[in-house]
Amino acid sequence: MLNTLWLAFFLVSILAALFQWLVLHDPDVFSRVVAALFDMAGLSVEIMVLLFGTLTLWLGFLRIAESAGLVEGLGRLLAPLFRRLMPEVPAGHPALGLITMNFAANGLGLDNAATPIGLRAMHALQTLNPDPRTATNAQILFLTLNASSLTLLPVTLFMYRAQQGAAEPALIFLPILLATSASTLAALLSVALIQRLRLHDPVVLLWLGGTALVIGGLMAMLAGMGAAAINATSSLLGNLVLCAIIGLFLVVGTLRKVPVYEAFVEGAKDGFDVAKNLLPYLVAMLCAVGMLRASGVLDLLLTGIREVTLWGGMDARFVDALPTALVKPFSGSAARAMMLETMQHFGVDSFPALLAATMQGSTETTFYVVAVYFGAVGIQRVRHTIGCALFADLAGVLASIAVCYWFFG
Fold first, then answer.
1. How far is residue 358 from each of residues 144, 184, 185, 259, 392, measured CA to CA in Å?
2. What's the Cα-to-Cα distance from 110 to each of 190, 240, 364, 378, rounded to whole Å?
């Protein structure tokens, strides 16, 4: 799947560039495409420099947690749920605890912590893989849910809105919460349908119902606060949880006679090795995406959507926010740039800007996540991962549009 997709990106980009040259008489398109190719190669190295530090740091702390038995304890706690969702993963396996911590970090918007934990979880799942080049059902479910971007506290987006002069930076909190919940539910249902998981099992229903109650309670609590209070609470909670996790690892490790410094160093060595192996996969995917963007394919697609929308007599204001949604599956930095450009062009509190920010918070960089997580363990046959992840992205985009028309239309 990745082989076909990667090849298609390059071929479509080249064909689009030829069209612009021969039909639209734009000979400069080839220079833009080539520049994008080398720019993305350079960006891959910049990303790796950042990943070296974060992976080394967090895998060091995770080694302490593993040595102290915390990861195994989380796995036992979630064993009843994951026995239903991931029947091939044994009860109490370390992967279950790592998956739990990854979801918690993503939900709190702690991206720097979530990625290293997620990579460690993928490595743990790979130990159960009978065919190391092909993704297992458990790996597909984990990655698809991870790529659905369940974010309960989008602190970073609040910060961007504040920088752009928004009167209420946290105005998008509830829309993002609703939209990201829709994308995560779509991810779970699509994988469950293909893998024939028993979601009607009482244990699964209990966990899903409990999660819904927690999210609903959080919404109810924050809905009564002012924008400034929501922003402050979200930022405080995210950073407090992060510090609490580190403190918990260190204290429990010390109480259980774990040599915490030595354990940290051993885990950090693993982080260096994992990061080093990611570079070829990042270069391959980001360069393909850069060519696709520079060739004008995305602009052409946007124009077509606008024309169809107007022809159908529908409101086309949402089209101005679609660049963020269209590039988000390929590049998080490009989507962030599109969102900020929309804010600057239309105004930070305009409908397109609010919708772009909601889309940014409700979907994930699917192809980046696939390249990083599967690339870290050498998986090449991803099976139904891409289809399910893109379906979740589509659900998040459609939910964002519907919610923003409801809240701000």
1. 20, 15, 17, 44, 15
2. 26, 11, 14, 26
29-86: per-residue pLDDT in tens?
A: 889 888 888 887 887 777 677 667 767 887 788 788 878 887 677 667 766 777 788 8
Structure tokens at 336: 């962030």
Range of the domain at 285: 2-408
How many Å apart are CA 242 and CA 223, to the nearest integer? 24
Encode pLDDT of 117-153 as tens digits.
788 888 888 888 888 888 888 888 888 888 776 666 6
**Three-state secondary structure call for residue 381:** strand
Per the CB < 8 A criterion, the answer to whether 97 and 74 are in contact is yes
Q: How far is 111 from 120, CA to CA, in rounded Å?
A: 14
Sign of the torsion angle spanned by Cα atoms 5, 9, 10, 11: positive
CA distance 45 to 210: 42
CA 298 to chain centre: 21
Which residue type sits at 195? Q
Q: 119: number of CA atoms within 13 Å, CB side?
A: 33
Q: Which residues pair with residue 134 across a beta bridge?
A: 381
Tokens of 124: 């743990």
Query: What is the three-class DSSP state of 148?
Result: coil
> What are the backbone angles phi and psi of residue 225, rounded to the nearest 5°?
-95, 160
Number of structural domains found in the chain: 1
**For residues 244 and 247, what is the distance between their CA atoms, to the nearest angstrom?**
5
The residue to which tokens 């910049």 are assigned: 46
Contact 147, 103 (CB under 8 A): no
